[in-house]
Amino acid sequence: MTKYSFMVFAGACSYGILSTLVKLAYGEGYHTAEITFVQALGGMSVLWGLHLFKRSRSAARPRLYKLMLAGALIGFTSWLYYRSVQYISASAAAVLLMQFTWMSVLLERISGKRAAQPGQYICMIAILGGSLLAAGPGIGSRSDLRGIAFALASALTYALYIVSNTFFSTETPALTKSAWMMTGSAVLMLVLVATGDGLVHADAGLLKWGLLLALFGTILPPLLFSGAISRIGAGSSAILMTAELPVAILSANLLLSERISHWQWLGIGIMLTAIAALNLVKKQA
Hints:
Elements: H1 3-16, H2 18-27, H3 32-54, H4 64-84, H5 90-97, H6 100-111, H7 118-135, H8 145-165, H9 174-195, H10 204-232, H11 234-240, H12 244-256, H13 262-284
């Protein structure tokens, strides 16, 4: 595995542990809006610090309001995803989030950005079938429908974020884009905090969880991806990024003692294979 492939793999693994960290934060009494706000604020501070240190200059002046709107979208994705793990298991939430893979294909088709191929529809059906097995009891009759709704909504907003990024100029440095996007995310989270429960727990514990989520969710992945995806290609990167799912399942099993059956592992295998095939078909198309 080359250095750049490992960077993409490591970024995906960072995303994979987020649902487990959020579950642990909930166990200490913190709520969604406050941990998401501290995460966005911490990520924004670090990214702007790196941006100013490197003194990034872009060949094309970015439309800042578009970048901030995209950041608000990814921030809202995090908020929805974190809300989902209040009601369903972390592993089930991770499985449902991965539905963004086929949702993004359909959105590209609707937007006219790219026409879907017959092979892609077969892969999407396989992803759905694998998801039913992989989610296991997390979306069974005992689960809370609100958790399922929040997780699927986060998958949709994540797909919207991915598709919207295809319309941005590639000449704008990744660090610049990430800093402005995280600013938009922080602004939205501030609004949610102000209009919701507020910062009920403004203490060291909240700072700990917020910074951990910022490190693994908004700082490391963008930095790793921006330096590696262009080197190995989008198709190979998308396949490596499927590592997020097994890491999410394993971290939930090890740190939260969530049981994983053989049927769930079979479903995960089907999902990962179908996602890899979906990205290969997209690359060929």
